[in-house]
């Protein structure tokens, strides 16, 4: 069976993190989120993939190539204009030779769940449950069949949702050929699903491990979940006087200096410098060539590659882009005084602890204070002693 991975979208809700990369290439546990999905599908027995690419496709192609280093075969189907999910799937039509899986590239699934999708009679939809179904396509299921699908309902009829994973036969392309533009001006896959539902022909496959990554703070939840399965590994240098508690993975060329205390699960990439006397707490991922320095504390955070957080910093419950530099003493707050849920960019994160979203190549002067829920665009620059709160666009500057 083939697997079509839809990976052409920009991921506007993930801004500013997608200003320089496609959403599916954002790192979770130091791998692009799409790589986790592809490896899970491979482990479920699929070796032939079609990647539908568009925005930032060069990064996807450079990372996966022809698939050889991952033990798979990859073909690419360009979607030149992002005209909706139906258009994205139609882009793969000439490369599909029989029954296939189709999956959104911005989610996390286990190989066991993908195996269930493979075994399900096509056509079928993977389903999951959530405590906020109104953000998704809400599904009613009876006797293993999908009875209805309603997108982003204000009054959801159930807590069961469309998980964005499907088992199809090539017949789906005949249905897609008849789809017309929706009110949003897009060609929607859900319109084709509606035809299958009306024919009582769409099965439902409950998924146990599905995790959607729609907003930057969802990266923290996915990162924490994937790190739970981390095995300790040391390919770098750990000096005397370093304390490692729980599963910690250290990449090749990385040096952990004396006095550093790391609580797993934690993964540290290649060629990093950590410490001396750094404190890294659980559910933290640190990208390649990063520096976490003296008396710096990092907790439940995704730090992307080539970022420097070198002296007397605190970063909690945050997503930090690549190539950033934190001046000495700069700190990110992560808790409101009333312990209420944090909003970021006007959106409820549903997290009582959440710090900031920081784009790529952001530079902070010394002793900056970043308030909870701040969203900072790429290439922003902040003068020493700046108080940073709210949202800032790309190239913003406080002098």
From TrEMBL:
Pfam families, per this entry?
GMPPB_C, NTP_transferase
Residue ranges that the Swiss-Prot or TrEMBL entry lists as coiled coil: none
Q: Which UniProt keywords apply?
A: Acyltransferase, Multifunctional enzyme, Nucleotidyltransferase, Transferase
Task: Give every Mannose-1-phosphate guanyltransferase C-terminal domain span.
Answer: 262-376
Biochemical pathway: Nucleotide-sugar biosynthesis; UDP-N-acetyl-alpha-D-glucosamine biosynthesis; UDP-N-acetyl-alpha-D-glucosamine from N-acetyl-alpha-D-glucosamine 1-phosphate: step 1/1; Nucleotide-sugar biosynthesis; UDP-N-acetyl-alpha-D-glucosamine biosynthesis; N-acetyl-alpha-D-glucosamine 1-phosphate from alpha-D-glucosamine 6-phosphate (route II): step 2/2
- Which GO terms of the molecular function aspect are on file? glucosamine-1-phosphate N-acetyltransferase activity; UDP-N-acetylglucosamine diphosphorylase activity
Reactions catalysed, as given in the entry? N-acetyl-alpha-D-glucosamine 1-phosphate + UTP + H(+) = UDP-N-acetyl-alpha-D-glucosamine + diphosphate; alpha-D-glucosamine 1-phosphate + acetyl-CoA = N-acetyl-alpha-D-glucosamine 1-phosphate + CoA + H(+)
Gene Ontology biological process: UDP-N-acetylglucosamine biosynthetic process
- Which residues does the UniProt record annotate as the domain Nucleotidyl transferase? 4-226
Q: State whether keyword Transferase applies.
A: yes
Q: Which family does it belong to?
A: In the N-terminal section; belongs to the N-acetylglucosamine-1-phosphate uridyltransferase family.
Which protein is depicted? Bifunctional protein GlmU
């Amino acid at each position: 069976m083939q697997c079509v991975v839809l990976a052409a979208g920009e991921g506007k809700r993930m801004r500013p993190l997608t200003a320089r990369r496609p959403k599916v290439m954002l790192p979770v546990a130091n791998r692009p989120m799409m790589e986790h999905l592809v490896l899970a599908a491979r482990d479920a027995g699929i070796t032939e993939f079609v990647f539908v690419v568009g925005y930032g496709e060069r990064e996807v192609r450079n990372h996966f190539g022809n698939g050889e280093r991952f033990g798979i075969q990859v073909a690419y189907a360009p979607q030149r204009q992002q005209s909706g999910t139906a258009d994205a799937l139609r882009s793969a039509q000439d490369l599909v030779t029989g029954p296939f899986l189709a999956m959104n590239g911005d989610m996390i699934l286990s190989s066991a769940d993908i195996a269930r999708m493979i075994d399900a009679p096509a056509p079928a939809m993977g389903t999951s449950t959530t405590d906020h179904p109104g953000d998704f396509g809400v599904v009613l299921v009876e006797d293993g069949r999908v009875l209805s699908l309603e997108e982003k309902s204000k009054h959801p009829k159930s807590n069961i949702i469309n998980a964005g994973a499907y088992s199809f036969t090539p017949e789906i392309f005949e249905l897609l050929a008849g789809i017309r533009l929706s009110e949003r001006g897009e060609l929607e896959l859900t319109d084709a699903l509606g035809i299958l539902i009306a024919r009582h022909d769409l099965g439902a496959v409950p998924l146990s491990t599905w995790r959607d990554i729609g907003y930057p703070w969802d990266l923290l939840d996915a990162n924490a979940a994937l790190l739970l399965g981390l095995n300790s590994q040391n390919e770098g240098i750990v000096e005397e006087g370093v304390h490692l508690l729980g599963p910690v993975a250290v990449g090749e060329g990385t040096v952990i200096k004396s006095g550093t205390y790391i609580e797993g699960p934690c993964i540290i990439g290649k060629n990093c410098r950590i410490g001396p006397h750094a404190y890294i707490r659980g559910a933290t991922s640190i990208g390649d060539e990063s520096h976490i320095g003296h008396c710096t504390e990092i907790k439940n955070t995704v730090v992307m590659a080539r970022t420097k957080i070198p002296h007397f910093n605190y970063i909690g419950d945050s997503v930090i882009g690549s190539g950033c530099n934190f001046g000495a003493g700069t700190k990110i707050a992560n808790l409101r005084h009333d312990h209420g849920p944090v909003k970021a960019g006007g959106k409820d994160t549903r997290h009582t602890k959440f710090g900031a979203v920081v784009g790529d190549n952001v530079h902070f002067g010394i002793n900056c204070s970043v308030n909870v829920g701040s969203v900072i665009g790429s290439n922003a620059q902040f003068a020493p002693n700046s108080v940073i709160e709210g949202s800032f666009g790309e190239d913003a500057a406080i002098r």
